[in-house]
Design brief:
The chain has two domains: 241 residues, Aspartate Aminotransferase, domain 2 (3-Layer(aba) Sandwich); 76 residues, Alpha-Beta Complex (Aspartate Aminotransferase, domain 1), CATH 3.90.1150.10. It starts with 18 loop residues before the first strand and ends with a helix. The chain contains 13 helices and 17 strands. It is of the alpha/beta class. The strands form four sheets. It has a seven-stranded mixed beta sheet with strand order 4-12-11-10-7-5-6, with helices on both faces. It has a four-stranded mixed beta sheet with strand order 1-2-3-15. A four-stranded antiparallel beta sheet has the order 13-14-17-16. Pyridoxal-5'-phosphate binds next to α4. The site of pyridoxal-5'-phosphate (PLP) has 15 residues, from α4.
């Protein structure tokens, strides 16, 4: 079927590739061509494709029970919530199916907290230029990217946007209606921009001083991507609320809102819900992902691989100063700002059977599975070198 005949709504510019199976960092097309997947379904396939422990977890659960309503206790949900809380600042968890829903849940929880504490006027959330929180109407309003809001009617109210990553700029936006601050510790879609540990610490201090909440969107940078389980751990501060998704499901749709007891306990029966959220299949897989990522030596290895990869990329940047402008991000959340169109670099890499992803700010995003091998990193470097040579030759 040609693209023009497809019954898929044309919301994506898709590469002409059809993958039918995967194994670790590798994807295979229907014609048997193999690609090294350094996009990981955009930071989703934490452990690569077809990881045996995830397959086992999904299969075992699929034979027991697929779905029950949240009208009942769900043991797999309790187990994953216990693990997430043991591993983080959080006391309470609400499960969703996606990152946008997790971001929405985070926004609702931040407002409800103030309403439940006698300050219903505190509804405004401060977001940042270049942010991304998903494609629902409130998540779009929270990020404020005009290109994504255009044509979709009135923009949800209750958000302001800070143009700079400076504490003075944030402070200027705070008034008696402010509920909190919403930020990705490492911006993903916006261009793999690490907001910095100092800035996160300053935000925490500011929120404490003003009596407002700090919400982290770790949908992309969480679950080991930066070499710590959560990216904010690098700064040594904790949020009041956090949204996760992508990496926690390892390929199974799963998201979550994590909160302190103070924030989450304002979300009383009837205030929020989701039919599928916390589905037993999703939570069984989520627990298996978390068990691996928290396993002995796993995150240390992510950090080591990241150092090795980044050393090589820094050299590549030096040698290809006409193609790349800088190397950014943290851990295995890697960005290379391009001097030529980033999508041309993504396409040139695809021609070398290496999959990467574009991001805002003309950035090439490189997100290998966290269990990537050094040999696979070497192959990716070789593909990058080849692609750069061809781009330079104008091939
Ligand atoms: C991808 C992403 C989202 C949205 O997740 P979906 O699962 O696509 O809804 C939200 N926040 C961040 C930081 C993301 O990277």
């Amino acid at each position: 079927m040609s693209a023009g005949d497809s019954h898929i709504m044309p919301t994506y510019n898709r590469a002409d590739l059809r993958f039918v199976r995967g194994d670790g960092a590798w994807l295979e097309t229907e014609t048997g061509e193999k690609y090294l997947d350094f996009g990981s379904g955009v930071a989703v396939n934490t452990l690569g494709h077809a990881h045996p422990k995830l397959n086992d977890a999904l299969q075992a659960q699929s034979e027991k029970l697929w779905h029950v309503s949240n009208l009942y206790h769900i043991p797999e949900q309790e187990k994953l919530a216990d693990s997430l809380c043991a591993a983080s600042f959080a006391d309470l968890v609400f499960f969703s199916n996606s990152g946008a829903e997790a971001a929405e849940g985070m926004i609702k929880a931040m407002r409800k907290y103030h309403a439940a504490h006698g300050a219903p006027e505190k509804v405004m959330l401060i977001g940042f230029d270049g942010a991304f929180h998903g494609r629902t109407l409130a998540a779009l309003a929270a990020a404020g990217n005009p290109a994504y809001l255009d044509g979709f009617g009135p923009v949800a109210q209750g958000f302001v946007h800070c143009p700079d990553l400076t504490i003075e700029a944030v402070e200027e936006l705070i008034d008696e209606t402010t509920a909190g601050i919403l930020i990705e510790p490492v911006q993903g879609e916006g261009g793999v921009r690490d907001v910095g540990t100092e800035f996160l610490r300053a935000l925490r201090a500011l929120c404490d001083e003003k009596g407002i909440l700090l919400g982290f969107d770790e949908v992309q940078c969480g679950i080991g991507r930066t070499g710590k389980l959560f990216a904010h751990e690098w700064a040594g501060v904790t949020p009041d609320v956090m949204a996760i998704a992508k990496g926690i499901g390892g390929g199974f749709p799963l998201g979550a809102v994590l909160t302190t007891k103070a924030v989450g306990s304002a979300m009383q029966p009837g205030t929020h819900g989701s039919t599928y959220g916390g589905n037993p299949l999703a939570c069984a897989v989520g627990s298996a992902v978390l068990q691996e990522v928290e396993g002995a030596g796993f995150l240390a290895q992510v950090q080591n691989r990241a150092v090795y990869f980044r050393q090589n990329l820094a050299r590549l940047l030096d040698e290809n100063g006409d193609i790349f402008a800088d190397l950014r991000g943290r851990g295995l959340m890697i960005g290379m700002q391009c001097k030529i169109t980033n999508n041309d670099v993504v396409a040139a890499l695809r021609d070398e059977n290496l999959l990467t992803v574009g991001a805002g700010d003309n950035v090439l995003r490189i997100l290998p599975p966290l269990n990537v091998t050094q040999e696979e990193i070497d192959m990716a470097i070789a593909a990058l070198e080849k692609a750069c040579a061809k781009l330079r030759a104008g091939a």
